[in-house]
Write a structure and sequence with these properties.
By secondary structure, this protein is of the alpha/beta class. It is built from eleven helices and 17 strands. Strand 1 and strand 2 form a beta hairpin. The longest helix has 17 residues.
Length: 459
């Protein structure tokens, strides 16, 4: 083993325990990929020896982001996305770790064999480190403990139809067997939290304009999320050792239920998404299916309430829920929002999105990194190695220009299908370089990936 190191220095480094940027010099052992030293000074010249030296000047040095909600869709739906394209999009946006959802790949990650198929497919394709969520579906409770032992970070289930036949939703009755199986394990159960009831169900609204966003919005009311989260908290009373997690919260009316559950000591965590914080139903034009996702983007007042909940800690973290598909399924020609696939293409834009919107709200960069790196790493069980610039942690870092401005266009899309709800938006903050375990994984000055090879690991 050599002692080759990477040394990165900057006037503006975000270190743990502070929202303030400060001068620092970070040393990473390239063989182990671990940070070995941090000095809180700016080094104006290379230490020499075998070290590779990066002087970031006044550019910001941040921990690599951890996106804990990504659909990479491989194998099976590789025309939608794949490990190669999805992880390239990630590192181009400063994301050094993604955690792949158990759907919409075929097969889904619901058995040990299916996990192995997915891992074999991913080998040699990953530009970022990749972890895996398992799936909970009716009848697979015997598969859960072997998946935990094999390293899945937790399990996702749907309380409403998922949109793909191979990943059916699960009933309250069936959930008992799965939660019983998981409650003594070091894991977490993630819920797509929409639930139909006698008084509230998804409406087709066939008599209304199928191209109007308001038609779609009214078809999936906040009550669906309230119903689901109410059920989850009831289940948690019985299986209180199992952490439960709400994915992509969109309904601000569910926040009081979450607060009440936590006040009773329930181990409940919550994420929201960039699109719920940065977009508003009030601004979505007719006939634009790229804005469709489930649950829906809601009103400005709802968005403000989500921001408040994020700031006060009711919502723990922010993820992309990058959920792509092929253009045909988005029904662009018809503008038919109601029959289009639901999902926002966004992988790699989160840091710029939150920085741009957050500046209007007095949000610090430290808060943003806490929500998108430290808390997401903790959620995925990766906080011993990811999510902060600390000695002993992986040398995952981002060199970032906070002042650079760009207009989102197709040339910025490294994911497979080149459309997004964010196209045309002007954003602040551009990734200059992304470093994964001490090695450069993306370099904007070298056309992004020239001369580089994928070095991501499967976690």
């Amino acid at each position: 083993m050599s002692n080759q190191s990477l040394v990165v220095t900057s006037q503006n480094v975000l270190l743990p325990g502070s929202d303030q940027l400060q001068p620092a010099t970070i040393t990473v052992n390239i063989d182990t990929g671990k940070i070995t030293d941090i000095q809180t000074v700016y080094a104006e010249r290379s230490p020499g020896g075998e070290a590779t030296f990066i002087d970031a000047g006044d550019k910001f040095v941040l921990p690599g982001l951890v996106d804990a909600h990504v659909h990479l869709n491989e194998p099976g739906r590789t025309d939608w996305e794949g490990f190669w394209t999805g992880t390239r999009a990630a590192v181009a946006g400063g994301i050094t770790t993604v955690v792949d959802m158990p759907l919409n790949s075929i097969p889904p990650t619901t058995t040990l064999r299916n996990l192995e198929i997915k891992r074999q497919t991913a080998q040699g394709q990953c530009w970022a480190d990749v972890g895996f969520w398992g799936g909970v579906i009716p009848g697979n409770q015997a598969d859960l403990k072997p998946l935990v032992a094999a390293g899945v970070k937790g399990f996702k289930c749907f309380l409403i139809e998922s949109g793909v036949d191979e990943f059916p939703s699960i009933s309250e009755h069936d959930l008992h067997a799965h939660m019983q199986e998981l409650q003594d394990q070091s894991t977490v159960l993630l819920f797509h939290a929409e639930l139909e009831s006698d008084s509230c169900s998804v409406q087709n609204h066939e008599e209304h304009d199928q191209t109007a966003y308001q038609t779609f919005l009214s078809s999936r009311p906040q009550e669906l999320e309230v119903n689901a989260i109410s059920l989850i908290t009831v289940l948690q009373e019985k299986y209180n050792s199992l952490r439960c997690h709400i994915v992509h919260l969109s309904a601000s009316s569910a926040l009081p239920i979450i607060c009440a559950a936590r006040s009773r000591g329930l181990n409940l965590t919550v994420e929201t998404c960039f699109h719920y914080l940065c977009l508003s139903a009030d601004d979505i034009p007719h006939g634009r299916p790229e804005f469709k996702c489930c649950p829906p983007i809601r009103s400005k007042s709802n968005r403000d309430a989500l921001w408040e909940a994020l700031i006060d800690g009711t919502i723990d973290c922010v993820v992309s829920d990058h959920s792509p598909c092929v253009a045909e399924l988005k029904k662009f020609e018809e503008g038919d929002i109601m029959s289009a696939w639901g999902g926002i293409n966004s992988l790699g834009f989160g840091l710029s999105l939150l920085w741009t919107e957050g500046q209007k709200r007095g949000i610090s960069l430290g808060q943003i990194i806490r929500w998108t790196s430290e808390e997401t790493a903790k959620h995925a069980g990766l906080s011993s190695s990811k999510g902060r610039l600390s000695v002993g942690h992986d040398g995952d870092l981002v060199i970032w220009d906070p002042a650079a401005e760009f207009k989102v266009s197709k040339e910025h899309f490294h994911f497979k299908n080149k459309f997004s709800a964010y196209e045309g938006m002007v954003l602040n903050g551009v990734v200059q370089q992304t470093v994964l375990r001490g090695r450069v994984a993306y370099d904007r000055t070298q056309n992004g990936f020239d001369g580089l090879t994928p070095i991501g690991k499967l976690l």
